[in-house]
Amino acid sequence: MTKGPAAPLHRYHEIVVRMAPSERQPGSAPSARMTSGGGVPWHYDAWIYTKLPLPVELGKVEPASGSGAPPPEVGGLPLIGHEEITVTWLSYGEYLSLFYGGEESMLELRRRGGGAISSGLRGLLQLKPRPERRLRLWWSSQSPELEDLPWEILELGGRRPPRFSIVRGSPGKAAPPLPVPDGEPLRIAVIDPAGGAPVALSDALGSLGPGIEVVWIEQDDPSKAIAEAIAAGCEVLHLVADGVVPFGLEGLLDLSGDDDATISPRELAAMLRGSRVAVLALTPPESPRIGHLGMPTVFHAFARFGHDSGEGPTIVAQIGPMSPPVSRDFWRAFYERLAASFDVEEAMSSAAQRPLVTPVVVFLRHRLGRQFCRPDDPALRCPVWTTAGTGQTPADQVLLTVAQVTADLSITRDLLDAARRLETRYASLGLDFPGTSAIAEEHKRQSRLDEVVDESSERLLKDLKS
Description:
This protein is of the alpha/beta class. It has helices spanning 92-97, 102-116, 119-124, 151-156, 199-205, 222-231, 265-272, 298-307, 324-341, 344-351, 402-428, 436-465; strands at residues 13-21, 40-50, 73-74, 77-89, 135-141, 164-168, 178-179, 186-191, 212-217, 236-240, 242-244, 252-254, 279-283, 314-318, 360-363, 372-373, 384-386, 397-399.
């Protein structure tokens, strides 16, 4: 059996919902209208990818070409269906005001959200996971304005179903779990240069168990504070930040109260690159800045920041207001469960039992299922895999880990996508692409590697159960 608190590393059953603006409508994207009101309807395509047999009838995938054509697969999952989303946009301030009306207002917002999605998509969100595996639904938006809406709490309802996780992002990238030395606690660096941390957060972090060490970074300069946390080897970074969304596009973090000293997603990703930080948590200050219609701008900024942070750590972000008691209970339960399981999704399921009043979302970057593990964890075990036919060298039995194979897939899928785009470009010019056979062979190789990872995960689960 595994020493330490962590649950076994394994892959979820996965479904990807990839959303993009529909080409059947005129006009410009609604992002510029998000703060102007007027009830603007906008149509989105929702492309469904999975290997699972689904008890849901989905719309057919019609042949398409050009920029509106969806990729044939995402993260090794094939395209199997098409659904639609139609959002009638309110002003952002009007939308956010519903959060302050209590559960009755949130139920009304949930009703509106349910009316925005087609029946097949609604059926996906009501699926029940199988007992042996958890189900992960990737909510992957190509349109940043869709990140503003709390799809998770609208569809999960008043009570979170067990073994079901909704995360934001795309499964194309994967990071292996970070080893935490035996006997060492999980270290959380809290960065609050402006001194605006909510009392509820301080209370939550002040009463955690022995599996977590909380370090409050005493530094007024945000960049120096982040550098200090990195130098200390902290695994989790909890930022108390305000935020702005200039021109309604990119979300920027403001940690110092100075509009000229904001941090963009790319800047923070560059700071954290090569560090031990695997999880980033975002909390608004006690008194956030006020924007349009008297509503805070920080939640809008957190949603857009997460959308643009594809190269950074897994992000846990609050995208709507929470009452102090709910906030205190959430962060305490979240971190206690994270220390026990090393799994952000499991920690979210434990802490956010009432999704309607807990508008916290996960932008996932760790597809394998956990962010951390112990050095002697089976997750790091090297099983002997028969790699003949998978494109590995040498073509016999070699020692590989799940992380190594997933790293291969993460890189080569990007290359395969680029080759397919080039093939499409050749076809549009009436030319034969010389690498068509190589694309087909690489697709087969990646499919075989997917099977190898699945088989290994099943073996690990059986070993742990025995």
